[in-house]
Amino acid sequence: MITSHPTRARTDDHPVAVAAGPEPSGAPAPRRGLTLAQLRARFTPYGFLTPTGVLLIVLMVTPIVMVVQYSLMDRVITNKNPAFVGFQNYLEVLTDPVFTVAVRNTLVFTVGSVVAHFVIGLAFALLLNTPLLSHRVKAFFRVLYVLPWLFTVAIIAVLWRLLLNPNGVVNYLLGTFGLTDGQTQWLSDPSTALGAVTFINIWSGYPFFMISLLAGLQGIPRDLYEAARVDGAGWWGQFRNVTLPQLRPIIVSMALLDFIWTTQQFALIWMTTGGGPITSTEMLSTFTYKLAFTQYDFSVASAAAVVVLLLSMVLAFFYVRHQKARD
């Protein structure tokens, strides 16, 4: 048996010292302190984010915490010594019949608006992307179709209140063609008010879908359409098997965003009908506003605001989840 010494070796009968090997790989390396340059490089991004973080805390987190706190108290602001009542304010909101009406109106208003925004926006986007029209004609219609998106909510509300007036242009045209008697109270009749404000919101919001879908259409490779035509697909087959699948991520993202924004629509409703007549156009936003600044019941209004916040967070969760899946 031949054995070797770990630190000695023999050459020409003379012992020669052999250097010891390196330390085992499992041994911990000596820890060195971070230099000033390394610390600066590590914390510089946080320095840039600090102003935004402070603004978010002051302008978003703090008000939300205050509203949640108010919703658990009794008669805050108007009462010097408000008492803790727990979830009583939430019970009062959820059992209020006007709240049920507001939820139903909000769903009708939102679903109708989002579906119409998609249909109209897609139709106009396809029209503006067709090779059958010249560039000048398409440029003219692009400017024309995007005009509703350039107006502020106040201008849109005043404009349509004048147009839908009993003596306005809409009644005049409908009466001239014999479609109505020409004296319809579009915004004052409970049977037509919700449909009227939904139509106004559709008119003012479809350019958001149109512009987004037009950008998506222009990004679809032409090779896909050529391959579809080679396979014998007509215009409907190309639309169903090429256009819609390519636009699906944009459609889902825009629909979720539009749903969130439309459920929180307040200015347009308030400046056209104020939630009336009676409760025919009462939305969650106007319902909460009236609780706070008409009835001065800030505790119940805070509870209603928290309910709306939770519903919005559910929609936001699905939107963020879809964006992560898309990425």
Automatic annotation (TrEMBL):
<keyword id="KW-0813">Transport</keyword>
<keyword id="KW-1003">Cell membrane</keyword>
<dbReference type="GO" id="GO:0055085">
    <property type="term" value="P:transmembrane transport"/>
</dbReference>
<feature type="transmembrane region" description="Helical">
    <location>
        <begin position="298"/>
        <end position="320"/>
    </location>
</feature>
<keyword id="KW-1133">Transmembrane helix</keyword>
<feature type="region of interest" description="Disordered">
    <location>
        <begin position="1"/>
        <end position="31"/>
    </location>
</feature>
<feature type="transmembrane region" description="Helical">
    <location>
        <begin position="140"/>
        <end position="163"/>
    </location>
</feature>
<feature type="compositionally biased region" description="Low complexity">
    <location>
        <begin position="16"/>
        <end position="30"/>
    </location>
</feature>
<dbReference type="InterPro" id="IPR000515">
    <property type="entry name" value="MetI-like"/>
</dbReference>
<dbReference type="InterPro" id="IPR035906">
    <property type="entry name" value="MetI-like_sf"/>
</dbReference>
<feature type="domain" description="ABC transmembrane type-1">
    <location>
        <begin position="103"/>
        <end position="319"/>
    </location>
</feature>
<dbReference type="Pfam" id="PF00528">
    <property type="entry name" value="BPD_transp_1"/>
</dbReference>
<dbReference type="GO" id="GO:0005886">
    <property type="term" value="C:plasma membrane"/>
</dbReference>
<keyword id="KW-0812">Transmembrane</keyword>
<feature type="transmembrane region" description="Helical">
    <location>
        <begin position="107"/>
        <end position="128"/>
    </location>
</feature>
<keyword id="KW-0472">Membrane</keyword>
<comment type="similarity">
    <text>Belongs to the binding-protein-dependent transport system permease family.</text>
</comment>
<protein>
    <submittedName>
        <fullName>Sugar ABC transporter permease</fullName>
    </submittedName>
</protein>
<feature type="transmembrane region" description="Helical">
    <location>
        <begin position="48"/>
        <end position="72"/>
    </location>
</feature>
<feature type="transmembrane region" description="Helical">
    <location>
        <begin position="193"/>
        <end position="215"/>
    </location>
</feature>
